[in-house]
Specification:
By secondary structure, this protein is an alpha/beta fold. The protein has one domain: Rossmann fold (3-Layer(aba) Sandwich). Helix content is about 30%, strand content about 25%. The protein has ten helices and twelve strands. Strands 1, 2, 3, 4, 5, 6, 7, 8, 9, 10, 11 and 12 form a twelve-stranded mixed β-sheet that branches. Strand 11 and strand 12 form a beta hairpin. Helix 6 packs across helix 7. It is globular and about 55 Å long.
């Protein structure tokens, strides 16, 4: 089944050109099914690029998913037109009384800033708290994962000496957890960040479980033991060229970035980059939608209050 998005959303034509099944509002309204209701809080500057990356993965599932887009504030975006934001994004005040089957909160390019220095940190905290009552499952990506681990579980991150950028080998740590069904023992994931949370502290936390880790990148998949929150510290949604775009952007800004690890053949940035994480990214999002959302959520979303997901 398809992902349901507005016909005019730029991602719609891009995904159709890739033979990915998206469905119009008109056709979806004629179907007698109960689609999953998914909310995406997009904190990335280039909204359209991130929308397309996430929707590409969400469409790779037999479930019909209705997607709404949320913004953290209504100030003008430097990288996305106000027409796009006004047409496709909603403010928190407009949706705060709604319930959702799932919520995704993206990363944000906030680098070395302490959380309390982020100008919308109070709003992020409010939405994280709200999510624990109004969404069956929440998937936090990269910066959002660190922010939510800090806010909900008091796990503080630390700043690395240099940015970790590249594609790294990971290993799963558990064999019979639904989210990891179909995973290879080892798999590859892109990372692009300055911060990290101590692997030892995460493993010692009595409310969290580390599901996958990397020698270079640390903890990658962390699940709360009540199965409501999934923290993903990397970027399984990245396209083949996203790391290259970031590397060239940093070069253009005179930042002297290191060449992304395990990305270019022979570490030669004049060569086309090599992608080996797309299958993992598709499986992760498909498993999350199936096992953490679809098989956990109440049929009637008005019954969300007080709902507790089943444990694995």
């Amino acid at each position: 089944m398809p992902v349901r998005i507005p016909n005019r959303l730029p991602a719609s034509s891009i995904l159709r050109s890739e033979n990915i099944f998206v469905i119009s509002d008109e056709r979806a309204d004629s179907q007698d099914i109960r689609p999953l209701k998914l909310l995406i809080l997009n904190l990335m500057p280039n909204k359209i690029e991130t929308e397309t990356q996430l929707l590409r993965l969400l469409a790779n599932t037999p479930l019909q998913v209705d997607v709404e887009l949320l913004r953290i504030h209504n100030r003008p975006s430097k990288h996305t037109s106000s027409d796009h934001m006004d047409a496709f994004y909603r403010d928190f005040e407009a949706i705060k009384n709604n319930n959702y089957d799932g919520l995704i909160i993206t990363g944000a390019p906030l680098g070395n800033l302490e959380f309390e220095q982020v100008d919308y940190w109070p709003q992020i905290c409010d939405i994280i708290e709200w999510s624990q009552r109004h969404a069956t499952s929440v998937l936090f990506l990269c910066w959002a994962a660190h922010a939510a681990l800090y806010h909900l579980y008091d796990t503080k991150r630390y700043l690395r000496e240099e940015k970790i950028s590249g594609v790294f080998r990971h290993r799963r740590l558990h064999g019979h957890i639904p989210l990891l069904r179909g995973f290879d023992d080892e798999f590859w994931v892109p990372h692009s960040r300055f911060a990290q949370v101590s692997l030892d502290k995460l493993k010692a936390h009595n409310e969290l479980q580390v599901l996958a880790e990397s020698d270079e990148a640390g903890a990658y998949l962390i699940m709360s033991k009540d199965n409501r929150n999934l923290f993903v510290t990397g970027h399984p949604e990245y396209t083949r060229t996203t790391l290259q775009d970031e590397y060239r952007r940093d070069l253009g800004q005179g930042l002297a970035p290191t060449i992304p690890t395990n990305y270019y053949p022979g570490d030669d940035p004049t060569q086309p980059p090599f992608a080996r994480w797309h299958a993992h990214g598709a499986l992760l999002f498909s498993n999350w939608l199936n096992y953490c959302v679809y098989q956990q959520t109440p049929f009637d979303l008005s019954a969300m209050q007080g709902f507790t997901p089943m444990e694995s």
